[in-house]
Every structure is written in C-alpha cells, then in structure tokens.
Amino acid sequence: MSYIPKTISEVITEYLNRMTFLPAIQREYVWTPYAIEKLFDSILGDFPISTFLFWKIREENKNEWTAYEFIREYDTEFPHNKEATVTGINQDVYLVLDGQQRLTSLLIGLKGSYRFFYYRWQKTKLYLNILKEPIKPDNPEEFTYQFQFRENDQPNPKDPNPQFWYLVGDILNYVDAEDAKKAVKGKLAEYSEVQRDTANTHIGRLHSRIHTLRLLNYYEEKSQDYDKVVEAFIRANTGGVKLEYSDILLSTATAKWKNLNAREEIHSFTDSINTTGNGYSFEKDFVLKGSLYLTEGLPIQYKVKNFNKTNLEKIEDNWEAIKANIESTVKLVSKFGFNDKNLVAKIALLPIAYYMSKTPNKNFVSSTNKDDVRNQIIIQKWLTISLLKNAFGSSSDTTLKNLQDTLNEQTDFSIFPYEALNKRLGIDTLFSEVEIENLLSTNYSTKYSYLILSLLYPNRDWKDNKYHEDHIFPKSEFSVARLRRRGYDEDTIAEYWKYYNSILNLQLLTDSENLEKNSKDFEEWFSSRDNNFKDRHKIPTITSYNFDNFLKFVSERRKLLEQKLKSIEI
C-alpha cells in the first residue's frame, strides 16, 4: 500500500470543496475548538496526525453518489454539511472515507471560523500566541504552543504573560516564510529581541508545516466496486463511531430517489420507530433491509449492487407502504411486551411486516375484534417460539427468502400462517425435554427470560399493559450473609443460589402489582392475593410458603412449568 504525500496548504486550497468532498457515509462534524487546537499543536510539535483514505471516483460515475461539502464556517447551531454540486466538475472526484474530522478542522483553522455558545454566541477564529516559548510539558495532554479560538487578536488583560495573537490563516497568504515574517515585523518592534526571535521562529515553523512539509499522506482507493469500498471504510473506521453498512447505501439512494430525500426519510423513520413503547435501537440497516424485503420482486441480499436505480425507484414508490407495515409490526410486538433486549433477532419482524402487507385489514394492530385478537396472539406466540428456538440465528437471507416464498404461496391471509412458516423453518412448536431444561435454567432479566415467562400467561391481556419480571421470593433475601444468618449450611446456600434467579422463581407482574409487592415476604404477600393468582402464576400447592420451604417450592413449581411448556400450542 503506497501513500500519496501532500502539503496542508495544497489540500486545503486545491482539494477540499473543489475536487474532494464527503460521501453520505460520513457522520457529521463533531470536533470541539479544543480538539482543533490540539491538532494544530501536534502539527507544530511534529507529532504524526495519521493517514487518510480517499476514494477516487471516475468522472463517469461521480453522479451516482451524493457528495457533501466540507464545513468551513462551522456553527454549532446549524452544524449540517451542505450538499455539493459535482455535475460541473469535468474530472475524477474524491470522497474522503477516513479523515473527515481532521481535514474539516484544518479547513476551519486556516480558512474558516467556529461559532459556539458559551454564556453568549461567539464567532471565533484560530490564533497562535507567537510570543509563548515552546516549552514541552511533562503532561502530554498539555499544549507545547498556545493555539486558541478567539474573537479578535487583542491580548487577554487577565493574562500577565506576553501575548501577540497571530491569525493562523494568514500564513496561507505567503508563499515565502520571510514574507510572512516581514508582514508582522512592524508590529513586533516594541517587543524585546528575544521575543521577536521567538515570534519569527513560530511564524517560520508554522509556514514550513503548512506550505513545505508533506504532512498529509493519503491512500487512494480506486476501486469502483462499491462493496469493496464499504469494506475499506469499515476497516478504516473500526476505532471510531460505529459504522452502519446502510450509510453508503443512503448515499446511493439519495442520488437516485426522484421525489424524496432518502437520507432524511430513512433517518427520520428509524428515529420514529425507535420511540415506540419503551424505546428500541433499530438501525438504518434494518429499515433498508425491510425496504428490499417489503417491495415485490426485489432481491433481499444486502448488497450495494441491489440498490441500483431501478430498485431504488421501486422502493421510493413503495415507501409509504413500507413505513406503514414496519411501523404496525413494531407497535404490535411492543404491545406484547417485546423490548429492545428480548427482541433478540430484529429481522424476525420482517416476515410479520410482510404478512401485514398482505392482509386486507389495515386497522389490524388496533382492532379489538375477537378474530383479530386471536390472530394477534398467534403472531405473538409464533415470534416468541421462533426466537427461543433461534430460528433466525444463521443464514438469515436464506431464512427470510424462504419465509417470503411461503407467504407468497398463501391464498388466505385472515389468519397468520404459522404452521406453514414453522414447516419452512423446520421448527416444532413443542419443546423437547432438553429445551425445557434449558428454558427453566434461564436467569432473571436476560434476553430470553421475558420471552419464556410470556409463554406461561396465555390468557393475559398483553396489549397496552406493561409487565415486570419479578422474583417470587424476594431477591434481597438471597445474599450469602442473610442466608448464613438463617443458619443454612454451605450446601443449602449453594442450592438456594442455584435457583433464586432462575425462571423457577420468576413471574410477570403489572406495574401496580410490582409496586405493591416490592420486597415483601412472599408468604405474607401471597395470602392477600385473589383466588386466581395461584393458577395464573403457576404457584404450586405446598404446606407452607415461608422462606425455609424455598427448595420445595422450586421443585414443585418445576413440575408445573414443565407441564405448561410441554402443552404450549398456538
């Protein structure tokens, strides 16, 4: 791999926003004034500022990608990049895959400004105090030079040290370092010879780092294979903010949607579904995958090549329906208590959304019709069992395609076709002995615990009710110190610890029930429950529900739960 060296002034004046731009895959600019000052301090102190990755796009392909300009005048109130116009550029263009923050910082520091609010709005430029001696500090986090974003060049009256604030961007006006020094010679006349020497040294050093030394080294990615470019970007940014594969697809879509702004639409919709219920963390990847899946006749493989112009136009035409079906599905599963933690394979929602696109009942999710409610429960159980059996654990594209084909084969969409889907998945709704043992060993508040507990309450009114996982015998009583104070030996303590946090000691309670129970002794609290509580929560009949009978309780409750899980059916 060979890198191309350039001077900072060459890149800043000849490349940025002329032939070099940002792709939509890049996140927005996030650096603070301090970070920019630190970058310039590193440059003047001869510390490396790492390498850069540029993607060279041939002229004939440049219009396939939406490009954005580098920000020159940064404003924290309006931080968004402006879309670039590349149609009039009659040459290859470059999109920066790695180095956006540093290059933007150089542009702001040398040719722009930084507006921020600190007690009041301030529009500042980068200055260098050329009278400060460059003494290297013991702490590497401290500056060697004194760079500062300021509103003007006037000295700070509260700082007793000598100050001459040189506008860093002025260095670009001089091809020769001596001319840069001569420009401030008159202003330095009142200072001592030592101070004038320090100032001239600073200006000469700044000039050489900006104009002479080739400090910017970039690798040129020439491939027009977009999937390879995505991989290059991922590898270059593994240490930064998490990259979503969708970001480069958004760049394509933004350029090829005719009436809508894909970037804004997909960002906005992703944010919207993430506010459903108690909140989710769906990513743009999920929405774009869903867009392929829910549009008839499109391949579902998540490849850049599948987001070509024809396919993207189909997605745009189907966008309102895509949003409606994904949103309905998320709302439905949220009402059944699925949350961000227990929805362990989010792609399992896509076959449900595809079914939603087929059903003629557009008010299905909010319907209270008994047949619709029955169908909703079927979907809840199918999703729960599918997740517990890890039906979407591998070969997800193949799995999704098989389920899509199965749904397309159906002629009646009044009932969710769970039997046909399960047959295609190769799963049985019944749990084996080994599966049941594993389910009952699952611990509190893990990704599968809520799913397992939900199967134990077939007659519960799930919709719009929030349920909490709760320890039947209070968790607080199982500390080793408390168990020892009860006089239990080490073997008994180990047994108590083995089961207290498992499904065998868990139940689902409503908000009000959970608040009322709190950490009350179970025997005391149980005596005040309604007649159906015992059957509803699968509480076994034993002689006493005091804490000393805990092992007897979990032994008998295991039998009830095993029986219930063996009889689960949709």
Lateral strand order in the biggest sheet: 1-11-3-6-2-4
Question: What number is the mean pLDDT?
Answer: 89
Terminal-residue CA separation? 58 Å
Oligomer: single chain
* Share of β-strand residues: 5-15%
Task: Name the structural class.
Answer: alpha+beta
- What does the radius of gyration come to? 32 Å
Overall helicity: 40-55%
Anisotropy-based shape: globular
Q: How many independent structural domains?
A: 3
Summarize the structure.
This protein has helices at 8-15, 33-44, 100-111, 177-185, 193-212, 226-236, 246-256, 262-273, 284-293, 309-317, 319-335, 349-358, 370-388, 396-409, 418-425, 433-440, 449-455, 480-485, 490-499, 511-517, 522-526, 533-536, 550-566, and strands at residues 4-6, 20-23, 52-57, 67-68, 73-75, 93-98, 113-118, 120-129, 147-150, 165-167, 216-221, 467-471, 506-510. With 570 residues, the protein is of the alpha+beta class. The chain folds into 3 domains: 4-217, no CATH class; 244-429, no CATH class; 464-566, no CATH class.
Pick out its properties.
6-stranded mixed beta sheet, 23 helices, alpha+beta
